Amino acid sequence: MAIQNAGEGINYLVACEDASVIEAEYAKAFAKGIRTVMNGQRESFSLGYPNHSPVGQRWFMGRVNRFPGEGPLRIVIVHENITELK
Predict the structure, then answer these.
(1) What's the pTM value of the predicted model, to 2 decimals?
(2) Residue 84 DSSP symbol
(3) What are the percentages of helix, strand and coil residues in the chain, rounded to 5?
(4) Could you state, in order of their start, the residue ranges of all structural domains in the chain?
């Protein structure tokens, strides 16, 4: 799920939804998962996805978690390299 032009100051959710790379279906599915956490349908979401490069095949697990409680919406997004587990 390599997202083009991703970095500091970029809206991560929009970048996922607008992905136009080989693994775009994973990026779009991850964006949908983020939205389910943001709108309260789920407390968390996870998705395994490939992120292959010319030098090797890599696999990652992306996780989205919502903080419980009152106040503004807060979520954490983590991507973990799980290549060794594959």
Answers:
(1) 0.74
(2) G
(3) 30, 30, 45
(4) 12-85
